[in-house]
């Protein structure tokens, strides 16, 4: 491919990594770019996981150094999330992702009222007395989120934030850090499933790794601002990106 194409792929990766670390929805940048450079939609969905793995590892490393979360807080929800991701990825191998984009757009709109319904839960300082081991019903929610993460992944960060804050009781900074951490595991699970089914689709490693380099840089920058920004700013950043994602899915898919 021409160097201009690779440059576009890298820039899209930087934007995606930054947005995903601060809030979520960066997939709506990377997948359209991958499709625009000639990769089929279902293969773009698989190739996109390479960048997610790189950005998640980098962002997790940066946020852990700033002590925004504990390992055990993320390990418990990672188990049902990974199981769900394996199921969702298997489905994604044989089903076009466009099947649920309209439903996703409507769900994005539904999430916004939850952010304003109990603002004290989104803005309160970090809690140290939250039990990291989820209840059975929260595990079911994590499992369902994992299925979606494996199938499409676009906007999964918003579902995780809502579950961590309103379900588990974490504050916004901790929930955002945990979101980044657990996405590492869901991405690994999804990527392994796509690799095992490589006879049905192709993962474009050259473009995917190029985009991953940009996402790693974006995640590094995003982790810096995620800690420094006031929770109110992050909350509005989340609302705006959710709204833009919903409009994209509902009217431009």
Number of domains: 1
Mean pLDDT: 79
Q: Rg to the nearest angstrom?
A: 17 Å
Content of β-strand: under 5%
How far apart the termini lie comes to 26 Å
Share of residues in helices: over 70%
In DSSP terms, counting alpha (H) and pi (I) runs of 4 or more, how many helices? 11
Form type: globular
Major sheet, described briefly?
A: none
- Secondary-structure element order, as H and E? HHHHHHHHHHH
Question: Care to count the β-strands?
Answer: 0
Point out poorly predicted stretches: none
- The chain-level structural class is mainly alpha
What does this structure look like?
- The chain is built from 11 helices and no strands.
- It has helices at 3-22, 27-36, 41-65, 71-94, 101-117, 119-123, 136-151, 156-167, 172-196, 205-228, 231-251.
- With 253 residues, the protein is mostly helical.
Task: Summarize, please.
The protein is mainly α.
What brief labels describe this structure?
253 residues, mainly alpha, single chain
Write the layout of secondary structure elements.
Elements: H1 3-22, H2 27-36, H3 41-65, H4 71-94, H5 101-117, H6 119-123, H7 136-151, H8 156-167, H9 172-196, H10 205-228, H11 231-251
């Amino acid at each position: 491919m021409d160097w201009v194409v690779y440059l576009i792929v890298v820039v899209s990766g930087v934007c995606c990594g930054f947005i995903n670390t601060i809030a979520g929805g960066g997939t709506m940048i990377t997948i359209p770019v991958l499709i625009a450079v000639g990769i089929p939609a279902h293969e773009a969905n698989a190739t996109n996981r390479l960048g997610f793995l790189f950005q998640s590892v980098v962002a997790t490393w940066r946020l852990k150094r700033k002590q925004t979360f504990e390992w055990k807080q993320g390990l418990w929800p990672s188990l049902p999330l990974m199981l769900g991701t394996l199921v969702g990825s298997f489905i994604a191998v044989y089903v076009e992702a466009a099947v649920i984009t309209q439903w996703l757009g409507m769900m994005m709109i539904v999430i916004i009222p939850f952010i304003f319904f109990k603002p004290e839960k989104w803005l309160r300082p970090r809690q140290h007395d939250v039990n990291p081991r989820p209840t059975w019903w929260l595990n079911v929610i994590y499992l369902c989120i994992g299925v979606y993460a494996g199938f499409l992944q676009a906007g999964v960060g918003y579902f995780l934030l809502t579950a961590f804050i309103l379900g588990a009781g974490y504050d916004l900074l901790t929930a955002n850090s945990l979101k980044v951490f657990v996405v590492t595991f869901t991405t690994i699970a999804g990527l392994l499933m796509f690799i095992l089914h490589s006879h049905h689709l192709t993962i474009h490693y050259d473009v995917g790794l190029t985009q991953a380099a940009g996402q790693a840089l974006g995640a590094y920058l995003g982790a810096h601002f995620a800690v420094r920004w006031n929770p109110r700013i992050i909350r509005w950043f989340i609302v705006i990106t959710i709204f833009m994602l919903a409009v994209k899915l509902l009217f431009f898919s």
